[in-house]
């Protein structure tokens, strides 16, 4: 495989696009990792325990969108040399639009998902290991920034591979141990109380089935 790891990117293309040499399976793992974080392992898991499997329905539908984008829309962007949404906005309008969009995306990500991900992860370490939440957030933020700045996209995707593998393995172990603890799969289905259904009733106050198509959790 021509793709190299563990070296500092020499060009802008290597830094932001990993030299365009990422294997398909690594890209798939990175896409999967993008949708998995402490939001899923902590918050969404708690929501699933209360509302059931229906919480995952919007993610299953999102996979259809990813396939459509990959097959029909992404090739068009790549043919004209567009790799990001801000690049498209510059191509469609002016460079100022690209700069403003990039700035807004960065600010919104820092103030929104990033904070909740770091905080929910810090809660786990504080609960199980007694590590102060603020200290954990600072260490993780600094460590992540250092290896991302140095390695670019290549360091991110290889970290994603380790992350996805460890999360999938740990979730599988937890699921198996949980089913064994509850007395087997038959008891698991009997005690689920309807939470194994993919869609909730339309009169549900928290997540009626139309919300899956119109707005996620609703």
| N- to C-terminal distance | 45 Å
Query: Which stretches of 5+ consecutive residues score pLDDT under 50?
Result: 1-5
The description of the largest β-sheet is: none
Number of domains: 1
Taken from the alpha-carbon principal axes, the silhouette is globular
Secondary-structure element series: HHHHHHHHH
User: For the CA atoms, what is the radius of gyration?
Assistant: 20 Å
Summed over residues and divided by their number, the pLDDT gives a mean of: 79
Compute the number of helices: 9
| Total strand segments | 0
Assembly type: single chain
Helix content: over 70%
Which percent band covers the strand fraction?
under 5%
Q: What structural class do you assign from the helix and strand content?
A: mainly alpha
Helix-strand layout with pairing:
Elements (H helix, E strand, L loop, with lengths): L11 H6 L6 H11 L3 H14 L5 H23 L5 H8 L2 H35 L3 H50 L2 H6 L19 H5 L4
Helix pairs in contact: 2-7, 3-6, 5-6, 6-7
In words, what does this structure look like?
The protein is an all-alpha fold. It contains nine helices and no strands. The protein has helices spanning 12-17, 24-34, 38-51, 57-79, 85-92, 95-129, 133-182, 185-190, 210-214. The protein starts with 11 loop residues before the first helix and ends with a helix.
What is the gist of this entry?
The protein is mostly helical. Helix content is 72%, strand content 0%. It is globular, with a radius of gyration of 20 Å.
